[in-house]
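ugh ok fine here u go
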Amino acid sequence: MAELTPGLYENIVTSAGLPDDVPLAVHSRYTRMEIQCALGDSKGTAVRPPTWREGVRWLPEAATDVFVFTLDKTDSGFSPTTRYRDYAISRNLIHWESQSMTTADSRTGRRYRSHEHSGSSVLLFARMHRSDRAFWFLGPATYVSHKGERPMQITWRLEVPLPGDLFAQFAAAV
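structure:
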């Protein structure tokens, strides 16, 4: 058992290459406000970060795209135009759909596709149901490929593979 502890600890609470001052652990759960505070998204406010309702947020100061998404969109709270198909393809790959107006050649689409080359980061957070207050931090991800546009159907590679239980839950969202 003692031999397993270091490996388990690294895989569960790793910061996955995030700067030391970013207090997020991969495969831990966070609310939107906790995510914003951890990433310094205060926009100069001392008390509370700005309201964030959409599933994507570009933080230019940190050169980071943050995606928060709900996997099970069967409840009535999602309109037909926001029922994006997001799910785990494997323990390492996530299928994610952009906002409905994003094209591959738009500024946002190009940023997603070339984030590694331009030095920006992509961080993924997911929850199963809209009623879940907190999102699982899936960690940093890199662009693999995309199909279509409006929305773009993007495949992201996770830096840290999903644990088996999260993969089973997230793959079932299909």
